[in-house]
Amino acid sequence: MTPLLIDLILQTPLEGGHIGEFSFYSLFLEAGWVVKAVMVILVIASLWSWAVAVDKFITFRLLKQRAERFEDTFWSGRTLEDLADGLGNDIRDPMARVFAAAMREWEESKNAGPLGDKDVRTAERIDRVMTLVVNRELAKAERGLNVLATVGSASVFIGLFGTVWGIMNSFRAIAVSQNTNLAVVAPGIAEALFATALGLIAAIPAVIFYNKFSHDLDRYAGRLEGYADELSAILSRKISKGS
Prior knowledge:
Strand content: under 5%
Order of helices and strands: HHHHHHHH
Shape: rod-shaped
Structural class: mainly alpha
């Protein structure tokens, strides 16, 4: 044990002493304004990340359910024209929007004249249209993940800043009082550790949520891009047949 620690133990009141209340609320009230600001920022960041996580959970669940329903309908054996007519304006699902964009481009190409002499350019235009729609839909699904990434990476350092500031307050209290009693340094150390804990509480769930939803996004991107490739192959066959 170091001499400073021995001195702190010897000077700590064992009976009838009261170092202060160490509830979360009292730690916040007794903290300096800098550490208070750090705590408020971390609490807001944590609540924000949880709100984004709930939103993303609902979003990816709906995307999965709608994709399954659309794929069941698409592979039910109906013609593309029947599917387009039955779909109408109900294009809430990204796969439905990819399908509608491809069919619209295909119909416009057919109405412009026979496909035989321009089938390659038509297929390229359909592929480009589908790629644009896929990228736009994936960008929508990705929205909010940068919040989780930022909270997960920055919260630890914000909490560490509060920790350093709280320890500085402890040493400042020692210098002012010329006393190393635990009652002098305990408040600063307590608020420093509390800031560290809040940083971890904000960062750990945000990192977990970010990894989970990034994986969900990658899986959905593969599913959506795979569907676009399948639809492109079907339309290419139809174009080559001139139908």
